[in-house]
Amino acid sequence: TALSAVAFFADRIEAGLTRDAAQLIGGDAVVVADQPIPATFTDLAKQKGLRVAYTSVLASMARAPDDKGGDSKLVALKVVDLTYPLRGKLKLGSVQPDGTVLANREAPLGGPDAGQAWVDAGVLLALNLKEGDSIWLGDKLFVIAAVIATEPDRGAGFMTFAPRVMIRASDLAAT
């Protein structure tokens, strides 16, 4: 009985880790490149029945409009396509008086609408902005439509120290 219980427990732990690992990376597998992925690669993945989502993460400067002080902040800009996220749930929320974010809704697939940005609370605090205000990313002005509470594939690394700004892939060229 004890051996069966331990084996059952180990199987449950393994299943949980497998499930959580897929959410942590945002899919079952991740292909990372510093150049665009060749179309033949993604075509093959789709032929094999896999769903594909494109994201790009880069360092950028976000700036408050001049009438809001014009301050700048280094951010981790994440660009997402209409299928993002493949695994896990992105949750949006509201900033509480103590600066924490209370998750209160699940984000729709595909990230923010065109012309909108979702931001970490740190962006709002650093630039003295709030939801509904605008933010400059390069040459394009975006409306801050929501605050990111949790991001399934946030991961770890240097760029996780900068607060996140998320936009739709179709807006990237305009920045």
Describe the structure.
The structure is a single chain. With 175 residues, the chain is an alpha+beta fold. It is 23% helix and 30% strand. It has helices spanning 2-25, 39-47, 121-127; strands at residues 55-63, 72-80, 91-95, 101-106, 116-119, 134-137, 140-150, 164-168. A six-stranded mixed beta barrel has the order 1-2-8-5-7-6. Strand 1 (55-63) and strand 2 (72-80) form a beta hairpin. The longest helix is centred in the N-terminal third of the chain and has 24 residues, at 2-25. The termini are far apart. The relative contact order is 0.19.
Determine the structural class based on helices, strands and strand pairing: alpha+beta
Low-confidence stretches: none
Q: Could you tell me the number of beta strands?
A: 8
Counting DSSP H or I runs of 4 or more residues, the number of helices is 3
Quote the distance from N terminus to C terminus: 63 Å
Radius of gyration: 19 Å
Categorize the overall geometry.
Answer: globular
Strand/helix succession: HHEEEEEHEEE
Taken as a percent bin, the fraction of beta residues is 25-35%
Main beta-sheet annotation: 6 strands, mixed, barrel
Which strands sit side by side, in order, in the main sheet?
1-2-8-5-7-6
Query: What integer is the average pLDDT?
Result: 85
> Share of helix among residues?
10-25%
